[in-house]
Design goal:
There is one protein chain. The chain has about 280 residues and is of the alpha/beta class. It has a domain at about 1-85 and about 210-280: Rossmann fold. The chain is built from 8 helices and 12 strands. It has helices at about 5-10, 65-70, 110-120, 125-140, 155-165, 185-200, 210-220, 250-275; strands spanning about 1-5, 15-30, 35-50, 50-55, 80-85, 85, 95-100, 170-175, 205-210, 220-225, 230-235, 280. Strands 1, 2, 3, 5, 6 and 12 form a 6-stranded antiparallel sheet that branches. A hairpin with a 2-residue loop joins strand 5 and strand 6. The longest helix is centred in the C-terminal third of the chain and has 23 residues, at about 250-275. The two termini are about 40 Å apart.
C-alpha cells in the first residue's frame, strides 16, 4: 500500500505503509466480576515505513494494550492490524518489543543476551556473535561485551535491551515506556542515544510514553489517545529538523508543540479521573 507524505515534509513523494490499523477494538475480561472492559475502540492509524511514532494519553487509555496487539500478544475484538499488508494474528520475528524493564538473563553476558533471539532462530554461532559485536558498538557499550547484567547501570541495561531487540533485524520496533524507570539525567541521555541508533537503522518505531516532551523530541508524529476506551484524538506532525539534540527542548517551536499536545490531552486526563471503566455485558 502506498500513501502520500505530507507536502511540507516530502514535496509530494510517496512512501510505503508499514503498519495499518483499521477500526481496532480490544476488550478484556475482569477477573472478579466477569465483565468485559472495552480498552480500545475504533482506532484507525497508519505508520509509514521508517517513521517514528509516539503515542501518549491518559493512564489506562489503552496505549500499551494497543502495542501488545501490534506485537500479536492479545487478540482483537474488532477491526484488523496489518504489517506489510499481512494480518497480525500472533507474535513473529518481524516485530520486537523493548519493555520498561530490561529483563536481561542474569546468567548471560551482554553478548549472550543480545544473541539469545538469534540462537532461537538457529543462527550460526559465528554469525550471531558478529551481529552482537556490531550492536554493542552501535548502542555504545564498547568494552562491556563480556559484562554480566549485574555489573551494568540501569541505562546500560536498557542499551542491551535495545540491542537485543534489534539483533533479529525486525521490521517494526515497539517500545513500551523503555525509559520510565530511569532517573531524569539518564533518561535524557537515553533519548538522545535512541535517536542516534534509530537514525542509523531507520527502523519503523512505535514508542509509548507518558512524557509529552519525550514524545515530541523523539517522534516524526505524535498520536494522542482519548481516555478509555482509547481512540485517536489527535495526530500531530512534529515539524522539527533532524538530527536533533537535547537543546531543541528549549526552543519556542518545541514548547508550542508540547503545549498543543497537553491542551489536547488535558480534557482526556480529567475524563480518565472521573469516568468509570466501560463494561460490556
Amino acid at each position: 500500500m502506498i500513501i502520500p507524505l505530507d507536502q511540507d515534509t516530502a514535496r509530494g513523494e510517496t512512501v510505503s505503509v508499514k503498519l495499518e490499523a483499521r477500526q481496532v477494538g480490544i476488550r478484556y475480561r475482569r477477573q472478579r466480576s466477569g465483565d468485559e472492559l472495552v480498552a480500545v475502540r475504533g482506532v484507525d492509524l497508519s505508520v509509514a515505513e521508517g517513521e517514528f511514532v509516539s503515542i501518549v494519553g491518559p493512564s489506562g487509555c489503552g496505549k500499551t494494550t494497543f502495542l501488545n496487539a501490534v506485537d500479536g500478544l492479545i487478540p482483537l475484538a474488532e477491526g484488523s492490524l496489518e504489517l506489510d499488508g499481512r494480518d497480525i494474528t500472533a507474535p513473529g520475528p518481524d516485530r520486537a518489543m523493548v519493555f520498561q524493564q530490561p529483563s536481561l538473563l542474569p546468567w548471560r553476558t551482554v553478548t549472550g543476551n543480545i544473541t539469545y533471539g538469534l540462537e532461537m532462530q538457529h543462527r550460526q554461532k559465528a554469525e550471531s556473535r558478529g551481529v552482537a559485536a556490531k550492536l554493542v558498538e552501535l548502542v555504545g557499550l564498547q568494552g562491556f561485551a563480556d559484562a554480566w547484567p549485574s555489573e551494568l547501570s540501569g541505562g546500560m541495561q536498557q542499551r542491551v535491551n535495545l540491542a537485543r531487540a534489534l539483533a533479529t533485524d525486525p521490521e517494526l520496533l515497539l517500545l513500551d515506556e523503555p525509559f520510565a524507570a530511569l532517573d531524569a539525567q539518564t533518561r535524557e541521555t537515553m533519548q538522545h542515544e535512541l535517536l542516534r541508533v534509530w537514525s542509523a537503522t531507520r527502523k519503523t518505531a512505535i514508542f509509548i510514553t507518558h512524557d509529552i516532551a519525550e514524545a515530541v523530541y523523539l517522534a516524526d508524529r505524535v498520536i494522542v489517545f482519548t481516555a478509555r476506551p482509547g481512540r485517536v484524538k489527535l495526530e500531530l506532525k512534529i515539524d522539527l529538523p533532524r538530527p536533533r539534540d537535547l537543546r531543541l527542548k528549549r526552543e519556542a517551536r518545541f514548547v508550542d508543540l508540547e503545549r498543543t499536545i497537553w491542551e489536547t490531552i488535558r480534557e482526556e486526563v480529567l475524563n480518565s479521573e472521573t469516568s468509570r471503566p466501560q463494561a460490556v455485558a
